[in-house]
Amino acid sequence: MATSMTRESEHSSDHLLTNTQSQSNISSPSLNINKRSNPDSPDNLPATQKQNTRQIRRRNSQGDLRDIEKKTPATRKNITDKVIEALTSPDVLNTIIPVLAEKISKTLTPLIEEQVKKCIAAHVEPIQKSIDEHDFSIRDHTVKICKLSIRMEQVDKRLKDNNKMLDVWDSELDALHKKTKDMESRLESQEQYSRRTSLRFHNIQVPVDGHGKILHPVNTDDKILSICNGQLGLNLSIDDISRSHVIGKAKYGKCQVIVRFMSNRTRDMVYTNKKYLKHNEDGVFITENLTKFRTDLTKKLSQMKYKNQIHAYWTADGRIFVKRAENSRKEQINSFEDISDIERDITSPTNQQQSDAEK
């Protein structure tokens, strides 16, 4: 459209130019005839001025054409604006936008879906692989757990059976322990009974060498008879002694002597008169010939007596007795458990309060 308008404007400008030229040629004779005396006429001008005048006219005509050409863009702009205004009107937009949106949606939706699927697949595949690996590991561990559970049930059953057997064995061991303890007690009592006619004399002077060793033989019978007749006031003879001998090592030239009398009556008579040795210069004293177990019991009671935890203890016919206080009744000690009971009673709060009150 703009091209046709340009061609028309060029055609009109050419037409105008030819018309002006023809008019000038036509009117020139009349002007030369009628206005020859006018000095301003172009015909009266020199040749150079005529050429200048023609050039000016030509430029004026070309300037008109240029003005027409300059006005053409303004026309184009107005058309463009109208087209833009038409396209941007609400009615057109409301009509075009849904159509364009539908076309774009149909075109882009498959592409977007494909790209989304690719993106999801790129992230999902490693996760799915990891899930599959974990599923396999879980199944493997489940199988192992089932096997272990079966084995645990078997082991638990065996343990229950073994516990039952252990309970039976424990009861048997308890019975055997009780029997053993009873046998030990009976054996210890029998051993003490075999010593019923024996006494032990302490701090008896014996001959020793330069190293403190006893010089054997030692006539222990004479030494025992000397003590019994001279210090205890008895009238014993060699026939009253079955056997006597030194026991242990000498210490400072003194040692212990065990004496077995011929009768229990003679032994009791000597043991009853031991009180006369209480202030003996040599420190001689007499005790019953106790077994090792009963000797250990008397040592423990001696420590308690030294700490004032008991009032007194003594032995009679191989039996051990103790009195907790001066006015308390005597108690027989048969084992270390009996001594532990006394210690627990001493350390109990009630007994401590009573002892504090007595103080």
Structural summary, described in words:
The protein has 359 residues and is α+β, with helices and mostly antiparallel strands. Helix content is 66%, strand content 12%. It folds into four domains: 2-68; 110-194; 196-289, RRM (RNA recognition motif) domain (Alpha-Beta Plaits, 2-Layer Sandwich); 290-359. Strands 2-3-1-4 form a four-stranded antiparallel β-sheet. Strands 5-6-7 form a three-stranded antiparallel β-sheet, with helices on one face. A hairpin with a 2-residue loop joins strand 2 and strand 3 (254-261). The protein starts with a helix and ends with a helix. The model is unreliable at 1-36 (pLDDT under 50). Residues 1-74, 333-359 are annotated as: Disordered. Residues 15-54, 347-359 have a biased composition (Polar residues).
